[in-house]
Every structure is written in C-alpha cells, then in structure tokens.
C-alpha cells in the first residue's frame, strides 16, 4: 500500500493528499510533527532534506510534491489528472508553477509578517501585490472554463486550489476575481476537498505556529549541516598529517 508521510496543514503535502483521494487509491497517512520530528534519524533516512511530503510505494520513495504528483500520474493514470492536449497541458503546468513560485511565497509572507519597520511594511506590500498579480493571471487564464483544462479537473486545481481559497483570510478578497472565486467554491464542495479541510481551530493554530516554526527549522537545519560536515573535516585533517 502507498504510504504518505505528511503534515496536515502543510501546503506541500495537501496537493499530494488530494491527488491520492481524487485517484481513489488506497494509501496510509503517516503524520510527521513538524515541530522537530522531521529532523529525527528515522525521517531523515526517508528524506535527507527534512521536509514533507514523502511518498513510499513499495521499495521506491519519492520526495518533492511536484515529483510525487508526476509519479502518481504516470504510475496510476486512471483517472487522469493531466490533459493530453498541448494547450491544456501548458495551462496546467503554468498554474502549478505560478501557484508555487509566485502565490505561495506571497502567502507565506502574509502569514509570517512582523509589524513595525518601514522595510517590513514594504515587503508586506510587495507580497500583497505579488498575490494580486498572480490572482489576476489565474482569473484571465481560467476564463469561462469550469477548470483550467476545460471540463477536466487536473493538477492545476490540485495545486492552486489549496491556496487560492485562503486569500480572504490573508486580507485579499476574491470578489475582484469572480471566475476564480466560483472555481474555488466549486472545488470546496468536492468530498475530497472537504476531507482534507482544516478546522477553524487548526487553521488558527497553524497561523500562530508558522511565525515560530521557520526559526526552529533554520536552527535545526544548521545543526544538521554542521553534523554532516564533521566527517569531511575529520577526513581533511587526517590527510593533512
């Protein structure tokens, strides 16, 4: 059986979780406590970069959410989550990439910002404008279609759909993007989306912790990198004698 190592609020885990549900595949969810469990030796054996998700399929494991999504699509193609038409496929890939490369960094900044300095205010405004620019692009790309690939739900929805609907809670209303707003509302009605939905308490808790956790992660990663460098240092010292 497929095993997904994940964290319930993780924006990288949730698309993979959704894809497994949409493909109706049997799988086991294995939660990872991101307050430190990802740095333990047992998990580092699965992913030396200490982050979720990790998919294990028999003797094969896959890290990085986009790689996992592509693996699932190739390994378990029915029902398909990628179109075969060139234009539709390009749209799906564009949505995936701008969601992760443009919208997600803006979302994270809007979540973890600190009030105070003029520099921080400028960074916050940049994040807001970055999010607005991405939403405008998605609104135009979607057009009057039900989904980005037409009538077929795809990885575009799987990836962007887990981010877009959160924008109002970050101070950016979707009323200025009526097509995207309708698209998002349709997704939230799907049983798969409802199955992974965070409760209001979980979302509030996540927003509180996201301000602290990155600092903890950075400290643990530095400790990890220092530990990894020790054998190399010892080897260099031994060769110098």
Summarize the structure.
With about 240 residues, the chain is of the alpha+beta class. It has 10 helices and 4 strands, in the order βαβαββαααααααα. A 4-stranded mixed β-sheet has the order 2-1-3-4, with helices on one face.
Account of the protein in words:
- There is one protein chain.
- With 241 residues, this protein is of the alpha+beta class.
- The protein folds into 2 domains: 2-79, 3-Layer(aba) Sandwich (Glutaredoxin), CATH 3.40.30.10; 86-194, Glutathione S-transferase Yfyf (Class Pi), Chain A, domain 2, CATH 1.20.1050.
- It has 10 helices and 4 strands; from the N terminus they run βαβαββαααααααα.
- It has helices spanning 13-22, 41-44, 65-75, 86-112, 118-142, 155-164, 178-188, 191-196, 200-209, 213-240; strands spanning 2-6, 27-31, 54-57, 60-63.
- A 4-stranded mixed β-sheet has the order 2-1-3-4, with helices on one face.
- The chain starts with a strand and ends with a helix.
- The model has no long low-confidence stretch (mean pLDDT 89).
What's the arrangement of secondary structure elements?
Layout: E1 2-6, H1 13-22, E2 27-31, H2 41-44, E3 54-57, E4 60-63, H3 65-75, H4 86-112, H5 118-142, H6 155-164, H7 178-188, H8 191-196, H9 200-209, H10 213-240
Parallel strand pairs: 1-2
Antiparallel strand pairs: 1-3, 3-4
Helix pairs in contact: 1-3, 1-6, 4-5, 4-6
């Amino acid at each position: 059986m497929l095993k997904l190592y994940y964290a319930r609020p993780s924006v990288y885990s949730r698309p993979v979780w959704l894809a497994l549900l949409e493909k109706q595949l049997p799988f086991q969810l294995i939660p990872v406590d991101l307050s430190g469990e990802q740095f333990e030796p047992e998990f580092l054996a699965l992913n030396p970069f200490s982050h979720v998700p990790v998919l294990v399929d028999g003797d094969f494991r896959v890290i990085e959410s986009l790689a996992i999504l592509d693996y699932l699509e190739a390994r378990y193609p029915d029902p398909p989550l990628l179109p075969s038409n060139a234009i539709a496929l390009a749209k799906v890939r564009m949505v995936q990439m701008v969601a992760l490369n443009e919208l997600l960094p803006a979302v994270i900044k809007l979540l973890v910002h600190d009030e105070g300095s003029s520099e921080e205010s400028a960074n916050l405004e940049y994040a807001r404008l970055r999010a607005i620019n991405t939403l405008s692009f998605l609104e135009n790309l979607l057009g009057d279609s039900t989904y980005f690939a037409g009538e077929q739900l795809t990885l575009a929805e799987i990836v962007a759909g887990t981010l877009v609907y959160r924008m109002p809670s970050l101070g950016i209303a979707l009323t200025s993007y009526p097509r995207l707003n309708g698209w998002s509302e349709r997704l939230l009605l799907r049983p798969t989306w409802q199955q992974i939905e965070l409760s209001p308490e979980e979302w509030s808790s996540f927003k509180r912790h996201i301000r602290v956790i990155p600092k903890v992660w950075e400290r643990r990663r530095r400790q990890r990198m220092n530990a990894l460098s020790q054998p190399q240092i010892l080897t260099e010292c031994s060769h110098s004698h």
